[in-house]
Design brief:
The complex is a heterodimer. By secondary structure, chain A is mainly alpha-helical. Chain A is 72% helix and 1% strand. Chain A contains 14 helices and two strands. Chain A has a two-stranded antiparallel ribbon with strand order 1-2. The two termini of chain A are 40 Å apart. Chain B is α/β, with parallel strands linked by helices. Chain B has helices at 2-39, 60-75, 89-101, 115-122, 129-135, 144-150, 173-178, 187-199, 213-227, 230-235, 245-259, 272-280, 294-298, 304-307, 345-363, 383-394, 409-423, 429-443; strands spanning 47-53, 79-85, 108-111, 165-172, 203-206, 284-290, 310-313, 328-331, 335-338, 399-400. In chain B, the strands form two sheets. In chain B, strands 4, 5, 6, 7, 8 and 10 form a six-stranded mixed beta sheet that branches. In chain B, strands 2-1-3-9 form a four-stranded mixed beta sheet. Chain B starts with a helix and ends in a 6-residue tail after the last helix. Classes of the chains: A mainly alpha, B alpha/beta. At the A-B interface, helix 2 of A face helix 1, helix 3, helix 4 and helix 17 of B.
């Protein structure tokens, strides 16, 4: 078997099927979207070639597009902060306990395997105002009744409210990834540092952080791209509303294509989302790399 | 040994490749088979027709049709009707439109006579229902309004109805009595009632804001009272403006209801059943919904106390109204359209059979049918059922059309979203009118020429 793995040609042949599937399911749709984005098409009538009109409209006059774009940035920052920071925090706490570690791990990971619809329903009940949901009930019980509000209908809070479930859901996933990175740090390094008198914070800042940085970078990239294509939970919970306050690029793209029946314009947005994600990845890599040097 | 390994590698990779290739091929042939299965069957004696249902396969119309289809299959073994459906309207429409865009239109499907359906008609994809009903001699069996509702503005008809409903304000009789309130007859009285309910600490109106159309109804009440359906038919093409008196009255009404807190808090995130539960649990005084809810208001799940407390009143009147008080939202539900390509003699015979069996079977489920058919007292239906049946008999011939079946899809999408924002006070009525006029200017020309 070892020889098979060393055989480059064999490796190439084995890579081919996966590559084929990848090309068909990822690259082909992107190319199709690019093609569609040059047309005006409602799905029934004939397609009409309109050149770059969809892109001009997108970057020029479409306020909703930019609103969705800025919403998306807020959505991404809330989610990345929750998933990576809280995930890291929980991972660190996990490394410092021995009792019940598996239990905590399982409990934190559980939301990641629940379907989006169930999570959306769950949080709808949490945020509910009439009948009163858990969040508002708790606020009233601790004497913060003035703060209770219909979170999903509140023009200022709805975006935060739809971001939190997605962030909360995958804290466990990033916890596992970062936890694995943390425990893979050799114990003798830690011991040596401790002997040199390093405090816990110092130990973390100067020893552990640099060592888990590659993993941290992957986590941030995954969380960011995941949030950039965020769709299901906001779509189910508020459908982009009230007004456009929880509209994200993917929900706006979906609605433009399938509700407003403008497949061409929707495709243009899809292309934008792909490019945006690529830029985001490149940006994160650069930022992390420059810190290293 | 080396040779052996090489051979192993080669054969393994070939197996993998072959598996992938054959998997691709496999799905292709499968797909081909199922496609031809509905159009021209492989086995001569079995034809499968798909009905794509918008109301959920457990809804009374779907269940009734399914039962009748099974009965029909007994005498016509070649016929088989398969139901596929989702109760959630937006995702239903999206799925249907995707199917049609990829040339996989089902044999039967639910659709309103909206701008999208008229495009399908333009492309010659649907069966002319008016012609078919006349040919089968069934046209006159329907309530006139039921068929009118299915028609396009030009009088042509490509869908046939399975339901019939009037829309009323349901209210809590006991709650009204305790506060000394009468069911309002005018919109002014309506606002007074709402204010009193609010002051006594209950939610005046329960509304499903998530599905958007229930809030959209509120926008349409006053324009309908003032102009009949003229306003919507004109404004959808940009011939009228939302800044016209009829438009502004409607907009201000929703703005008032929302900002004065007459809708339940957080209504934009409340869904259909949650809104109904709010009313049925006695936490809201009024709830606007169609007569299709009648049996849900008298079934065993409703508390005994609430069961006897369910009353209803008609759409209020206003000064200068051009429509009578027995004219209001009446509809025959989302219609059923037939794919011209798959419509053959068997299907035609089935439709004929369906039209004969449907009225009785459907009404006995406690529903109101689009046919001239009613139950008498001896059938032992709940009292509320007969009250609504009487009300239907008294209703007028002018009925309000739902705006979401009239506007073009893009404007409709925007309207649903922004209307909720208007009710939350995010727009002033003037801003909202401007927004809508803009949207119509931009989108309507693609649909109305």
């Amino acid at each position: 078997m070892d020889k098979v793995l060393r055989n480059r040609k064999a490796a190439l042949v084995f890579l081919l099927p996966a590559l084929l599937v990848y090309l068909l399911t990822v690259l082909a749709p992107i190319l199709w979207s690019m093609y569609f984005s040059f047309f005006s098409w409602d799905g029934v009538s004939d397609m009409l070639y309109i050149g770059f009109d969809n892109y001009t409209k997108m970057f020029g006059g479409d306020k909703t597009f930019w609103k969705a774009f800025s919403n998306n940035l807020i959505y991404v920052s809330i989610i990345v902060a929750m998933q990576v920071l809280l995930g890291l925090l929980v991972a660190i706490l996990l490394t410092s306990i021995t009792k019940g570690r598996e239990l905590f791990k399982t409990l934190y990971f559980a939301p990641a395997i629940i379907t989006s619809v169930a999570i959306a329903q769950l949080f709808q009940n949490v945020y509910s105002f009439e009948p009163v949901g858990i969040l508002n009930y708790c606020l009233q019980q601790i004497g913060l009744g003035d703060w209770s509000k219909p979170w999903l209908s509140d023009l200022h809070w709805a975006l935060t409210a739809v971001s939190v479930p997605e962030g909360w859901r995958y804290i466990g996933l990033y916890m596992i990834i970062l936890y694995s990175a943390l425990i893979s740090i050799p114990a003798d390094i830690e011991e040596a540092a401790r002997m040199d008198g390093a405090s816990s914070w110092k130990l973390f800042r100067s020893i552990k952080m640099p060592l888990i940085k590659p993993v941290l970078m992957v986590s941030i990239i995954m969380a960011t791209t995941g949030a950039l294509k965020g769709f299901d939970i906001p779509y189910i919970m508020t459908n982009g509303g009230p007004g456009r306050v929880t509209e994200l690029l993917p929900t706006y793209m979906y609605k433009t294509a399938f509700s407003s029946l403008d497949f061409g314009y929707g495709s243009a947005m899809a292309v934008f989302i792909v490019i945006e994600s690529l830029i985001a990845v490149a940006f994160i890599r650069r930022m992390m790399d420059s810190k290293e040097s | 040994m080396k040779r052996y390994v090489k051979r192993l590698t080669l054969s393994l990779s070939l197996v993998v490749l072959a598996a992938t290739v054959s998997a691709c091929g496999g799905t292709n042939t499968n797909k081909g088979a199922s496609e031809t299965g509905s159009a021209n069957p492989q086995k001569v004696d079995k034809k499968t027709y798909k009905w794509f249902v918008a109301r959920g396969v457990d809804s009374p119309p779907a269940v009734t049709v399914k039962e009748i289809a099974e009965e029909f299959s007994r005498t016509h073994p070649e016929f088989e009707l398969v139901l596929e459906g989702t109760g959630d309207r937006p995702s239903y429409l999206q799925k249907l439109r995707t199917l049609i865009a990829s040339n996989e239109m089902p044999a039967m499907f639910d659709t309103d006579s909206d701008a999208y359906a008229s495009k399908l008609v333009e492309q010659g994809k649907l069966v002319d229902m008016k012609k078919l009903l006349e040919e089968l001699g069934k046209y006159k069996d329907f309530r006139p309004v039921a068929l009118q509702y299915q028609q396009f503005a030009d009088g042509s008809m490509y869908t046939f109805p399975l339901e019939y409903g009037i829309e009323v304000f349901w209210y809590n009789i006991k709650m009204f009595k305790d506060l000394g309130l009468e069911p309002p007859k005018t919109f002014d009285e309506f606002m007074e009632v709402a204010e009193k309910l609010k002051q006594s600490g209950v939610t005046p109106i329960a509304v499903d804001g998530k599905d958007k159309w229930p809030v959209l109804r509120y926008l349409a009440y006053k324009p309908f009272r003032m102009t009949g359906n003229d306003f919507i038919e004109n404004v959808k093409q940009g011939k009228a403006s939302f800044k016209d008196p009829a438009g502004m009255e409607g907009i201000k009404f929703v703005h008032d209801l929302g900002t004065k807190g007459y809708f339940q808090q957080g209504f934009t995130a409340t869904d259909y059943t949650a809104a109904r539960d709010l009313y049925l649990s006695g936490k809201a005084g009024m709830y606007y919904m169609g007569s299709w809810e009648t049996m849900n208001f008298v079934n065993d799940k409703v508390s005994a106390e609430m069961k006897d407390n369910i009353g209803f009143f008609r759409l209020p009147m206003m000064e200068g109204a051009t429509t009578a008080d027995n004219d209001y939202f009446i509809n025959s539900g989302i219609g059923v359209a037939f794919n011209k390509e798959t419509f053959d003699d068997t299907m035609k015979e089935f439709v004929k059979f369906l039209l004969e069996q449907y009225p009785k079977a459907y009404t006995e489920k406690g529903q109101f049918s689009p046919f001239n058919y009613s139950l008498d007292q001896e059938q032992g239906m709940p009292e509320l059922f007969y009250k609504i049946q009487d009300e239907i008999a008294k209703s007028g011939n002018v009925f309000a059309v739902p705006w979401d079946t009239r506007l073009d899809p893009a404007t409709n999408e925007l309207l649903g979203n922004e209307l909720n924002a208007l009710a939350l006070g995010a727009h002033t009525p003037e801003e909202f009118a401007e927004l809508m006029d803009q949207a119509i200017k931009e989108n309507a020309p693609k649909y109305f020429k």
